Amino acid sequence: MRNTGALGMIVISLLLGSAAVVVAAKWLNNQVNIEASKIIVASQDINVGTRLTPEILKAIDWPSSSIPEGSFQEVKLLDSRVAKVNLQRGEPVLERKLAPEGTVGGLSGVIADGKRAITVRVNDVVGVAGFALPGNLVDILVNIKDDNKNPISKIVLEQILVLAIAQDLGRDETKPKVVNAVTLEVTPEQAERLDLARSVGSLSLVLRNQIDKSVGSTDGVRTQDLLGTKIVVTEPQKEVEKVVVYKSIAPRPTVEIIRGVQKSSANQ
Predict the structure, then answer these.
(1) What is the CA radius of gyration of the chain?
(2) DSSP 180
(3) pLDDT tens per residue, range 149-185
(4) In the chain, pLDDT over 70 holds for what percent of residues?
(5) How far is 69 from 84, CA to CA, in rounded Å?
(6) Across the chain, what does the average pLDDT equal?
(7) DSSP secondary structure string, 80-128?
(8) What pLDDT, on the 0 to 100 scale, is given for residue 244?
(9) In the chain, where are the structural domains located?
(10) CB neighbours (10 Å) of residue 202?
């Protein structure tokens, strides 16, 4: 009886194992039969502003049902195109990640339409100690003297994109870099304001939150605001005519007193 029971268990195990093999083979067969298409991806890490060449691209199979919009199927279609964002190895090359056709490599390839790039000198203090990295947004402060020769600090530009620090366009760095120049993306009008501001005073960068779109409307800060005091402007003294007012005093009433044959008077 025991041998019969053991033999039955062996037979059941063999049947279950065979069924598992059949199911696994069917699943693998379905995976192999998934329709795939070729798309172009980066064969290595590509920095922003880099001109694309066949050496840094490759074609791989990609499920046809999930091909990203704007992808490319042939390497030759990407010849001399410029990356406007950093691309990681194996990442699909998409149209939205490239500068317009005909753009040359470098900084000019990442400037948005209608914008300009302007470089300002900074030091490790006014440059937010190196934390203003490409891709960050900053506000611009100018420190000048007003018409009365009193110092004033005022925000003149807000939400300005940092394109590069020194000659570095990379946007994946998180480590602070102390540099002496920062390149900013501005409109033509902002470029004029920034150029005038740096010619009449000293500039500082204020790092802001990437998703904060609020506008900081201020009147600027002066010395008296900083110290909590008021500046009193003295004017030349003028002669003031003094007028003396004399108050007349009415005579006090008197009372006549008669004592016998004597008469006297007294003031009340």
Answers:
(1) 43
(2) S
(3) 888 888 889 999 988 887 666 655 566 666 778 889 9
(4) 71
(5) 17
(6) 77
(7) T-BBSS-B-TT-B-BGGGBPPTTPPSSGGGGPPTT-EEEEEE--TTTTG
(8) 47
(9) 36-106, 111-227
(10) 12
Average pLDDT, stretch 84-111?
A: 84
Q: In degrees rounded to 5, what are phi and psi of residue 91?
A: -80, 135
- pLDDT computed for residue 93 by the predictor: 93
- Token representation of residue 14: 């063999």
Rounded-to-integer distance, Cα 42 and Cα 40, Å: 7
Q: Report the distance separating Cα 160 and Cα 193, nearest Å.
A: 13
Q: Looking at residue 42, what is its pLDDT?
A: 93
Residue found by looking up tokens 């008296």 in the block: 224
Q: How far is CA 47 from CA 87, 199, 235, 243, in A?
A: 7, 34, 64, 85
**Does residue 203 contact residue 120 with C-beta atoms inside 8 Å?**
yes
CA dist 176 and 127 (Å) reads 10
Tokens coding 266: 């007294």
Measured CA to CA, the distance from residue 144 to residue 151 in angstroms comes to: 6
Instruction: Report whether 92 contacts 40 (CB < 8 A).
Output: yes
- Single-letter amino acid code for the residue at 25: A
207: CB partners within 8 A, 6+ apart:
128, 131, 132, 136, 137, 138
Q: Which amino acid is at 257?
A: I
Which has the closest alpha carbon to 128: 137, 119, 116, 118? 137
Read off φ and ψ for residue 3, nearest 5 degrees.
-65, -40
pLDDT tens for each residue of 204-241: 888 888 788 888 778 888 877 877 765 555 555 554 44
Give yes or no for a contact between 38 and 62, defined as CB atoms under 8 angstroms apart.
yes
- Classify domain 36-106 at the CATH class level: alpha beta
Size of the chain, expressed as the number of residues it contains: 268
